[in-house]
Amino acid sequence: MFAHEFLFDPTYGYDDAALLRVPAPVGPADFAEFWRATFGQAMAVTLNLSMRRIESPRADTELYEVEYDSLDGVRIGGWLTRPADGVVQRGVVVGHGYGGREAPDFNLPGPPAATLQFCARGFHRSARADLPDLAARHVTHGIDDRRRYIIRGCVADVWLAASALLAWMPQTAGNLHYHGRSFGGGLGALALPWDCRFARAYLHVPTFGNQPLRVTLTCNGSGHWVTRYWREHPQVLDEVLAYYDAATAARHIHIPVLVSVARFDPAVPPPGQCAVYNGLPGPRQLVWFEAGHFGYPNEAKDNEQLNAALCRFFS
Length: 315
Description:
The protein is an alpha/beta fold.
């Protein structure tokens, strides 16, 4: 398609049939134990909630700056939005990509929602001097120890965003959803199995899928830096990355999930994306994109089809 613009093939030689055969690794014997213990630690955190209303660019939406405490004493910032007319049919925790989040999104497809759009630790409103804010350094921060790896804390940021949203908007209990793209998609897959408060989820071009395959694939996204580290420290695959495999985590998700996968993606290799979808044992839907992390002529049409699918899925 557009492979001439790269020194590698962003389809990785996979057609649709091959993508649907990419396995989700079973993972370590204590994979679930590790994550359940992490979830328990996160749920013991006192949130110390802070909320202040700010001017909204949309007359139909109230906007608030919010903060809460997360695992390891990290203060997380973000935005809460809710319909100005008070009609809230659901709550949505919204993740973000590895570019971070500079502002809230007011255009989530689906029924009227209260959203908590958090900034994962290190990024924008959750920036700290001791945490990196660039993907290249963020994705390898603490990677030598699975209990100190920054992605563990980022997953906890998802769970505690749910706790904060439910504290502010208790009427969303029982109809809590997750939206995550790229980095946020991978975090969602890692977070969802252990938190029964989520009822549905949407993951777009999720990262962290099939780590044993991921580290062997050339890309220009965060996986590039993980691969560089792995080549010098091969033990990291079994000792750490196996516990942060979004496809392995997907095997433990039983709520309905809609996954959108790109056939061509130079940043997040499509085989890893599809491994997340393939691992899902529960109700699932798949939406194909022509490309991910790359502009193309049919992108607007693909987004329209996705938005229609999301409206149906969350209704």
